């Protein structure tokens, strides 16, 4: 017999062995010895009160063992000589599209503009130390996409778009810790993701798929509204059957190419703002109601904040406890910031994007002449302002949080995790009013919600501009572009995902759709 239970355990009890078993036996009214095993299905932390509690959802096995057969199996086939499907981009959407193709007996041909995870590190070092951005290999482009070196948070609200558990199980199959199957807010970590991504690539190659790095797509050959070939930067032209376009939300050249060729695009709403960075100790003390260091059993504390300001949401985005702020520009002449955390989340800073919802129909009147690319140009303009304010390098403009809200230039800045460095700048006046004004009111409200959050010990760093794509590449119900036969817009770049898991699920769906159309 198996029964599922919800159990609550306080911080002190968490230290004792068999505590879950004892609580389960008491709750079920059965002997401790009748419980042969307990399997933790979900674990979360409740820190709303002074006494921190762990919430567990468990399966209690009574007089029977835990089955040793896995819930999910992944049967990959040799597709060396199978029909081909081309996949542009090797982020989460592209990777999982390729894996799904192999499961279904089709050969994926992956074209990635950037480098593999190992070689990509040199270009990340160049951004941080030399302030040089390789437009094809950076924190956004390369094997694994933006997620590889941007944290690896796996939380998703896209529960109706596919089998979330299947993606998690597949990550474990490729080397992720089993803990991601249990944690309420699962996280792999920037230091561990590259190996998992390498395992996925090696599996694709093992079963006959192809992955080509340093291979940027520069044009589409279309005849009678059917995609017939793709052209590469090196001049090669590849004949195609179906193309899954999984280029990510920062592949601006792809949007511009499609627009130039009069292929239907739509402008979409998105969000922009800044990164805020606190000492992690401050966030721990607020969230765990402690005066000193947090208990060793507790992870670095996270937070989630939202406030309505002048009919727009101001909210935290991609919160990174114990993390780093990184330069996420994809070209020289722009400054973009993002956040990441290692698996142990043991850095001394906490950072989060704090962004403002922007309405594509109301907030971009001076950009209307650009049509579907109006939001994209607005992004570019703010990133250029940040570049100039930082001193025309990857040094980022920054301000103490209290100075930003009160409208004062900071005479000095706090220590930071952002390697290229910070320059004191009047972000309160540099940011457009639709963003800066709302952010200032939002931070003031957040300070009332989290006592101690509003502090001069925090820095505001700009700009956080790549939260999602400002462009949507439309698709029909069968996931194919409404104009171009054989083109399947996919993942964050198409406007259909918002993170690793939702992008991976969309990749699988697009692979299935592309195969149906062959």
Structural account:
Strands 13-14-17-12-20-18-19 form a seven-stranded mixed beta sheet. A five-stranded parallel beta sheet has the order 6-5-4-10-22. It has a three-stranded antiparallel beta sheet with strand order 1-3-2, with helices on one face. Helices cover 27% and strands 24% of the residues. α2 runs parallel beside α5 and α2 (92-103) packs across α13 (500-516). α2 (92-103) links the parallel β4 (84-88) and β5. It is globular, with a radius of gyration of 24 Å. The chain is built from 13 helices and 22 strands. It starts with a strand and ends with a helix. It is α+β, with helices and mostly antiparallel strands and 518 residues long.
């Amino acid at each position: 017999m198996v029964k599922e239970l919800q159990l609550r355990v306080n911080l002190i009890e968490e230290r004792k062995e068999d505590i879950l078993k004892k609580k389960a036996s008491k709750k079920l009214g059965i002997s401790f010895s009748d419980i042969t095993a307990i399997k933790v299905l979900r674990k979360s932390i409740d820190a709303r009160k002074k006494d921190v509690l762990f919430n567990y959802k468990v399966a209690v096995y009574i007089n029977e063992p835990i089955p040793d057969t896995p819930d999910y199996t992944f049967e990959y086939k040799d597709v060396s000589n199978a029909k081909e499907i081309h996949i542009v981009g090797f982020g989460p959407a592209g990777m999982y599209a390729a894996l799904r193709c192999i499961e279904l007996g089709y050969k994926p041909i992956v074209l990635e503009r950037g480098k593999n995870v190992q070689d990509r590190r040199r270009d990340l070092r160049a951004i941080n130390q030399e302030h040089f951005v390789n437009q094809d290999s950076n924190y956004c482009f390369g094997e694994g996409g933006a997620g590889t070196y941007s944290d690896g948070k796996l939380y998703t609200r896209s529960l109706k778009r596919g089998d979330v558990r299947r993606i998690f199980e597949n990550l474990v199959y490729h080397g992720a810790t089993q803990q991601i199957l249990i944690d309420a807010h699962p996280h792999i970590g920037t230091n561990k993701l590259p190996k998992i991504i390498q395992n996925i690539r090696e599996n694709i190659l093992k079963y006959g798929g192809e992955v080509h790095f340093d291979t940027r797509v520069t044009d589409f050959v279309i005849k009678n509204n059917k995609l017939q070939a793709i052209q590469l930067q090196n001049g090669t032209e590849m004949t195609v059957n179906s193309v899954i376009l999984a280029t990510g939300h920062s592949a601006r050249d792809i949007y511009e190419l499609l627009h130039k060729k009069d292929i239907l695009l739509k402008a979409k709403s998105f969000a922009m703002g800044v990164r805020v960075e606190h000492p992690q100790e401050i966030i721990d003390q607020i969230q765990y109601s402690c005066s000193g260091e947090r208990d060793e059993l507790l992870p670095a504390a996270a937070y989630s904040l939202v406030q309505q300001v002048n009919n727009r949401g101001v909210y935290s985005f991609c919160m990174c406890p114990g993390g780093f702020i990184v330069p996420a520009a994809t070209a020289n002449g722009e400054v973009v910031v993002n956040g990441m955390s290692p698996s142990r989340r043991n850095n001394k800073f906490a950072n989060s994007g704090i962004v403002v919802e922007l309405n594509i129909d109301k907030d971009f009147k001076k950009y209307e002449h650009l049509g579907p690319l109006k939001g994209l140009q607005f992004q570019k303009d703010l990133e250029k302002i940040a570049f100039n304010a930082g001193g025309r390098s990857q040094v980022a403009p920054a301000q103490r949080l209290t100075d930003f809200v009160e409208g004062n230039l900071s005479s000095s800045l706090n220590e930071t995790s952002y390697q290229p460095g910070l320059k004191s700048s009047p972000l309160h006046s540099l940011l457009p009013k639709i963003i800066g004004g709302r952010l200032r009111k939002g931070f003031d409200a957040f300070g009332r919600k989290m006592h101690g959050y509003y502090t001069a010990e925090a820095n505001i760093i700009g700009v956080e501009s790549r939260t999602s794509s400002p462009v949507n590449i439309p698709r029909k119900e069968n996931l194919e572009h409404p104009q171009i036969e054989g083109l399947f817009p996919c993942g964050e770049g198409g406007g259909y995902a918002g993170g690793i898991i939702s992008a991976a699920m969309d990749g699988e769906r697009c692979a299935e759709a592309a195969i149906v159309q062959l």
